[in-house]
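Table S2 (text version). Query chain:
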Amino acid sequence: VQLQASGGGSVQPGGSLRLSCAASGKMFPINFMGWYRQAPGEERDMVALISTQGGIQHAESVKGRFTISRDNAKNTVYLQMNSLKPEDTAAYYCSYKGLLSSTTYWGQGTLVTVSS
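Corresponding structure-token output:
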């Protein structure tokens, strides 16, 4: 599975960005796609996950501000980020995992910078 992410950039506090990630290759019928982020010197943390059936999980720190969605026909996951804060600054990584697979696939990372 290959993942191609896009949509990062720089924005002022309170602004919005939308990340996209397209998966290609041998897909699993039931899978989980999502976003993780990693700030310099920090661990990689889950931001949001969504299953093929639409089950969603958001980290507490982004609830009410970020929304994950997916288009199964396009094997693409999106992350709409609103009301961005400086502490949201990080490299954002797209992820993909099949239900019965022990392997998590990662995208190349896209940088989000929130600064005035």
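Notes on Table S2: The two ends are 37 Å apart (CA to CA). The mean pLDDT is 96.
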